[in-house]
């Protein structure tokens, strides 16, 4: 008998407790930890979003209790949400964020598929070394990697990207001063940060594709592209979709890349929604407004992930 079963039997021996009650008691510690580190911050953020909280009134009282009860901040209802939803900068940030998600995830999927197919090919030697090199970026602090890429996309002549352009006879580009050139820099850097995770998932999926299917297709005269389209892609679709949903959420919440590169510039044109919320809350010290932006973002990304999981049938069989 396992330790969990023995614990459940002991709890069940207590009067007025059924086995279902005993199971509930066993998960209470985990629920408490989840509530303390996940649920409580979200609820506190939700509470702030209905107030006019700012540093002057949120921290007006003394002690932790005063802060937990929002200090002297006043209840304003849905005023913050109305202000945000009628702000043109919000809709610019909202649109740019989803565009960033779409373009960066497409780039990640394409790059990870190409790399995964390369390192799993029978024509490639030293696969283990290659796989070790591929996951190497995961061991680097994101802020370090982003700072390096900021130097690569420097608008100065000594920037690596400009040196490459000059070597091929092209003129240098002010990468971080233009809206769309900065947006391209965001995408390349985001793909570099996320591709190791995508490659790991894709390689694992490729290794589960039955070799017999490829051999039978070769016998039938199918070429590489035909086998890739009709055997490989259908076989790895669900794992890649799952990884894409996770990395989409990461792209939606991206803060460091735009903030380190040019703070969402030029002139807030590339301000992703998390940077927008940060600026409203901390730069303009409008905590209530910043909290409302965060809640709206949370609702949209939650709906996006739920819809993709449901439409992609990724949860099939979990209740079986």
UniProtKB/TrEMBL annotation:
CDD domains: TM_PBP2. The chain crosses the membrane at residues 24-46, 58-78, 98-120, 132-152, 158-176, 183-207, 287-307. Keywords: Cell membrane, Membrane, Sugar transport, Transmembrane, Transmembrane helix, Transport. One of its GO terms (cellular component) is plasma membrane. The keyword Cell membrane applies. Belongs to the binding-protein-dependent transport system permease family. PANTHER family: ABC TRANSPORTER PERMEASE PROTEIN, INNER MEMBRANE ABC TRANSPORTER PERMEASE PROTEIN YCJO. This is Sugar transporter. It comes from Haloarcula mannanilytica.
């Amino acid at each position: 008998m396992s330790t969990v079963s023995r614990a459940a039997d002991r709890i069940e021996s207590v009067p007025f407790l059924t086995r279902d009650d005993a199971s509930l008691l066993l998960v209470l510690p985990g629920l408490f930890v989840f509530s303390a580190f996940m649920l409580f911050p979200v609820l506190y953020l939700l509470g702030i979003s209905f107030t006019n909280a700012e540093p002057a009134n949120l921290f007006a009282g003394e002690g932790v209790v005063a802060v937990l009860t929002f200090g002297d901040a006043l209840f304003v209802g849905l005023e913050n949400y109305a202000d945000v939803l009628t702000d043109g900068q919000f809709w610019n940030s909202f649109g740019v964020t989803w565009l960033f998600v779409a373009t960066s995830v497409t780039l990640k999927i394409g790059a990870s598929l190409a790399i995964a197919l390369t390192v799993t090919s029978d024509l490639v030697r030293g696969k283990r070394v290659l796989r070790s090199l591929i996951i190497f970026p995961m061991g680097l602090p994101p802020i370090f990697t982003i700072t390096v890429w900021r130097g690569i996309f420097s608008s100065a002549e000594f920037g690596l990207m400009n040196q490459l352009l000059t070597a091929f006879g092209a003129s240098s580009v002010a990468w971080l001063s233009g809206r769309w050139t900065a947006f391209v820099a965001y995408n390349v850097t985001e793909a570099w940060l996320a591709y190791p995770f995508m490659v790991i998932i894709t390689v694992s999926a490729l290794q589960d594709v039955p070799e017999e299917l490829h051999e039978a297709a070769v016998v039938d005269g199918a070429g590489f592209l035909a086998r890739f389209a009709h055997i490989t892609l259908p076989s790895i679709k669900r794992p890649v979709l799952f990884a894409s949903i996770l990395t989409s959420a990461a792209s939606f919440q991206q803060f460091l890349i735009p903030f380190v590169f040019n703070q969402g510039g030029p002139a807030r044109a590339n301000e992703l929604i998390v940077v927008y919320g940060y600026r409203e809350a901390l730069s303009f010290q409008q905590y209530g407004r910043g909290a409302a932006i965060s809640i709206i973002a949370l609702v949209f990304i939650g709906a996006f992930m739920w819809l993709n999981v449901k439409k992609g049938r990724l949860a099939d069989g979990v209740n079986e």
